[in-house]
Amino acid sequence: MMRASALVVSYADTASALKILHLTNELRPGMPVIVRTRDESDIDRLKAAGAAEVVPEILEGSLMLASHALMLVGVPFNRVLRRIRDTRERRYDLFRGFFRGVTDETGEERDREQPRLHSVTVVSGAAAAARTLRELGLPSDRVEVTAVRRRNVRSLDPDPDMQLAEGDVVVLRGLEKDLMAAEMKLLQG
């Protein structure tokens, strides 16, 4: 501990963390201690005891759940990262201003340049019905077919010779303009 630059309490036990903070303050005053906790209920106590930062499991778990959900419904990756960063900057003092830079460009132009997921349902009369992904030219060099859902069963990395059926949901990954072209190909040919 005498040579350490920082200390991380990586398990969520407030009573134990308070003891560690007390001991650290005695042996190495000023050494930063980062503490893990289950939720935000003990943050003030831990900070008052000397924690440089307190990381609540529930917040981080919620951020990951929300991120995955946003990505799966087609929100561009860069926008998801921006939301996570903004949430963390509001919550964690140490992150304030850390992520600023060239990747902070905002607006629709930047989002269109980021690959995203897009789901297309093979409706009645769609050009893709009874045809294989290979026949349709999917995947292509611009659009990847990441999954096909049939009757709520998801097939990841589907075979190009898989024949599509009415009701299938084809999950595509690519840039916005390429995704729109692939959707047209699936629906109209």
Describe the structure.
The chain has 189 residues and is of the alpha/beta class. It folds into two domains: 1-113, Rossmann fold (3-Layer(aba) Sandwich); 116-188, Regulator of K+ conductance, C-terminal domain (Alpha-Beta Plaits). It is built from seven helices and seven strands; from the N terminus they run βαβαβαααβαβββα. The protein has helices at residues 14-27, 43-48, 57-72, 77-91, 108-112, 133-136, 176-188, and strands at 7-9, 33-37, 53-56, 116-121, 143-150, 153-156, 169-174. Strands 4-7-5-6 form a four-stranded antiparallel β-sheet. The protein has a three-stranded parallel β-sheet with strand order 1-2-3. Strand 5 and strand 6 form a beta hairpin. Helix 3 runs antiparallel to helix 4. The longest helix has 16 residues, at 57-72.
The CATH homologous superfamily of the largest domain corresponds to NAD(P)-binding Rossmann-like Domain
Distance between the termini: 66 Å
Number of strands: 7
Low-confidence stretches: 96-105
**Rg computed from alpha carbons, rounded to a whole number of angstroms:** 24 Å
Largest sheet: 4 strands, antiparallel
> Based on the structure given, which CATH architecture of the largest domain is correct?
3-Layer(aba) Sandwich
- Strands ordered across the widest β-sheet: 4-7-5-6
Percent of residues in helices comes to 25-40%
Order of helices and strands: EHEHEHHHEHEEEH
